[in-house]
Design goal:
This is NUDIX hydrolase domain-like protein. This protein has a single domain, classed as Nucleoside Triphosphate Pyrophosphohydrolase, CATH 3.90.79. The protein is built from seven helices and eleven strands. It has helices spanning 6-14, 34-44, 107-119, 253-267, 283-292, 296-304, 309-318; strands at 60-69, 75-82, 93-94, 97-99, 130-133, 137-138, 144-151, 166-173, 209-215, 233-239, 251-252. Helix 2 crosses helix 4 and helix 5 runs antiparallel to helix 7 (309-318).
Length: 338
């Protein structure tokens, strides 16, 4: 591995510095339900329990979890269908996001810039105040992805979809990521009118939430865990959107995991289902393993950045910022509400 580099470690840590303005819940376009108000308070007071250990900057990314208040006072999240012409994850249901650019000073900057480029969401922090930055997730391509949660206060926004990247924009109830049954659907009448067409009626025989356990460590074998994996597996969740007949794919994998955790923090309780597979490795173990077994772009990032991967792996080995216990119980220590 490359020699020890402290400058890269410190520059990476700067990505997680941000200013959290006071939340003005009375300024939402529609009156909040009491439950939704508490959700926003939980998100706005959320703090990660440990500083994020170092990771190669060029393999670091962010997604924007853009929430808004529907007509009935419930919280919804904006989702997009990736363009079918893309070379990776074509047609998938996703959150707007991408890798850190050189001009991004913080991980929040990355998420906001990508959302502006993909779906035209303004980078105005007054109209879209920051709620929180959650602990990162490790994608299957060894990219460290951090969710940045914001609240849309302006319901006059209009989408400007980047056609080479995004085909469709729609919304989904945040609370439904804690449930095993289809959410009750109604037009939420929030921002981006195109995002809120009524969902198609789902066939009753289809399960809203399903999952598959895939073998770990990487490279994964896409299928049931095998004896060769010594019982270690990562659980991949899948939620139907109700729009599958129209060509929209279910919410799956990394996007589903991010939204499960966002909803759990917001509503302050675990999902109705077990989040993790038996013996599933926590984030620190998975990141450390990836740093010791880098593939292609991560290996290239380590080399180009003169990044001390073994030193970083040892820090991730001891990191206690994981989200769930192996049994799938809720581990978030909810902060006091405002």
């Amino acid at each position: 591995m490359s020699p020890k580099s402290t400058t890269r470690d410190s520059s990476n840590s700067e990505l997680y510095r941000f200013h959290r303005p006071k939340l003005r819940v009375h300024e939402t376009p529609h009156p909040l339900k009491r439950e939704s108000e508490l959700c926003l308070q939980n998100l706005s007071t959320y703090r990660t329990r440990r500083p994020i250990p170092p990771f190669p900057r060029t393999n670091t990314a962010a997604v924007l979890v853009a929430l808004f208040v529907g007509r009935a006072g419930d919280l919804y999240v904006l989702l997009s269908q990736r363009a079918k012409t893309l070379t990776s994850y074509a047609g998938d249901t996703a959150l707007p996001g991408g890798r850190v650019d050189d001009e991004d000073r913080t991980i929040e900057d990355t998420a906001r810039r990508e959302a502006f480029e993909e779906i035209g969401l303004p980078q105005d922090k007054a109209r879209l105040p920051l709620l929180c930055i959650l602990d990162p997730f490790l994608a299957g391509n060894q990219v460290l992805v951090t969710p940045v949660v914001v609240l849309i206060l302006d319901n006059t926004l209009q989408p400007v979809l980047n056609a080479p990247e995004v085909d469709t924009l729609f919304s989904h109830p945040l609370a439904s990521f804690l449930s095993t049954s289809f959410p009750e659907r109604a037009a939420p009448r929030g921002p981006f009118p195109e995002a809120e067409a009524l969902a198609e009626t789902a066939a009753l025989e289809l399960e809203y939430h399903t999952y598959a356990d895939v073998a770990w460590p990487w490279p994964w074998v896409m299928g049931p865990a095998t004896p060769e994996s010594a019982g270690r597996a990562v659980r991949m969740h899948r939620f139907l959107t109700g729009r599958e007949a129209g060509g929209i794919k279910p919410i799956f994998g990394l996007t589903a995991a991010i939204l499960i955790w966002t909803a759990a923090v917001a509503y302050g309780h675990p999902p109705e289902f077990l989040v993790q597979a038996h013996g599933e490795p926590e984030l620190g173990e998975r990141v450390a393993w990836s740093l010791r077994h880098p593939r292609q772009k991560l290996e290239e990032a380590v080399r180009k950045e003169d990044f001390d991967a073994e030193r970083a792996a040892r820090i991730w080995d001891k990191w206690e910022g994981g989200r769930w216990k192996a049994a799938g119980r809720f581990r978030q220590r909810m902060p006091s509400r405002l």
